Amino acid sequence: MISCTEYIPAYSEFFTYLDETYGKEELDRFWEYHFAPTGKGIRLINFLKAEGLKGCYTYWSAALKEEAADVTIYLNEKAGWFMTDMHKCPSKGKLLKLKDEFGFVPYHSYCMHCDGYRAAVEQVGLKYMYDFVGCDRAACRLIIYDPKVFNERVIVDENTKILDIRASENEYYHLDFHRSMNSVINYVGENHGISAVEDYLGRYTRNVCLKQMTDIETRGIDAIADKIRDTYEKEKSPDAVELVRDGGKLTVNVKYCPGVKYLKDTGRIVSPWYRYTTEVVMKALSEKAGVSFKMLSYDEETGAACYTFE
Amino acid sequence: MISCTEFIPAYSELFTYLEDNYGRAEVDRFWKYLFEPTGNGIPLINFVKKEGIRGCFSYWSGTLTEEASDCTIYLNEKAGWFMNVMYKCPSKGRLLKLKDEIGIEPYHDYCLHCDCYRAAIEQVGLKYMYNFQGVDHAACSLIIYDPKVFDGRIIIDENTEKLEVRASENEYFHRDFHSSMNMGIHYLGENYGLTVVEDYLARYTKNVYRKEIADIEKGGIDAIADKICDTYEKEKSPDAVELVRDGARLTVNVKYCPAVKHLKATGRVVSPWYRYTTEVVMETLAKAAGASFKMLSYDEENGAACYTFE
After folding, report:
1. Complex-level ipTM
2. Which among B216, B258, B219 has a CA at the least distance from the CA of B238?
3. Which of A128, A133, A141 is opposite residue B156, by nearest beta carbon?
4. Is it the case that residue B70 has pLDDT exceeding 90?
């Protein structure tokens, strides 16, 4: 499992992987798949169907709080418009921070994936206008409107609901990124097979995890143990994992996978490829530490697993 | 003549005057008249007829430089969009400054007049979306797009032209405000007659020239002379005026009116009511000084005039 708090660089790396390996058209196909408003994936469509334009406000006010965005959200149902004024996008902001910290290269058109919400919005007859100017500094603006009502004037008046969300007031913890990770890994597995899954996850581990684990070559298994504990702490599920150190061996007992638990709780189908987000990442860490890795068991139902480093 | 550098408060005061006396609908009627894309008034229509969406860039890059705005202007002809991101509008900024300095209240919907450029834009088949969010701090943004080309995404790419306009790098001197003043006074005169023209201009003088009037109350005719010299300096036409002080009398010889000169040079018809922008303003200042005012001559052709204070 990749913690939902660590999902964004995995997402960016996936875009880069698809573009470099199969071309931009393949990335566009992925975005189309990922944002398809089926009701089972990204939930925006369910909100829109239930509430119309107001569903945009309901959906993004929650998602952007969980993502600890710096954003102002506006809704004027009477005038038929919704707007997000993103002052600092938490996702792009995180990628730019990683760039500063260890030279991570965000996917060059990372922000363009947000245009994928258009599919859900247009399905219910609303219009979607995205202003990507400013995305080099993690800022952008989105206007969604009802073409039957909106008179092309965005005016803040007594009918306008405003929500200011500040990163400093919220915790970065958006569990639904597990849904996205599940979608990513299912797409690559179903369309390109196990070697592509391994390639992509190996690349992610090298370009993100290992860049942050500067001590893995000197501390070996202990550094890996710290990384695993940190992942489950970030996931707010330290009870889900038990680490046993026995001489030169580390045994990791995962009682349940918080990612799988979340997916099941929200009615999603866990991809058969999801297990590799643990297996391949751990294997890549072990290789860097110069130790062997064994996946002894994995329960598809709960994500419970047992694996060792030696 | 009211200097083009002093037009904005006159504009705001006119909106307030119309609403206070005739209701909000009358302000809308005036705006419709002022922005009517006839080709003889606001020149935007001439630009967009000639150049299409590029005409927006040509028109506003000229005017907003002359108005010493703080804004960024974008054009992507290939993708069919134009955008102006206004960080600090020189007009609203000026009104907010006057509010701080002398307590004059800007017209409450001042910024909405900018929506009226829509008439010219829509006449050539383009679409106009105005975002007035931010007008309380003199910020706004405008998107104009070609509905046959634009795909709902504002993306800066190799086809995007960008112009940064900075107030600090430009002089505030937009001569074409004389056309707006000419049309404003013409509207008032034609629809309501001389009493209303006088009423509005006296109100403007008392409200906007509060500081000058305080000086005039103390300094009398000498302070009026300073005000007149200042107006022609601001208009970059000190040669247009000659002041003769003879005992208690001040004689002002205007050789030509810089505003009339601009109107004629740009093919506009000078309103028969235009002369009152001198006559009523000067008479109001004279009253503040406790002096008499006489307009001895006024040449409709070039705005040359002779008047005295005593």
Report:
1. 0.85
2. B258
3. A133
4. yes
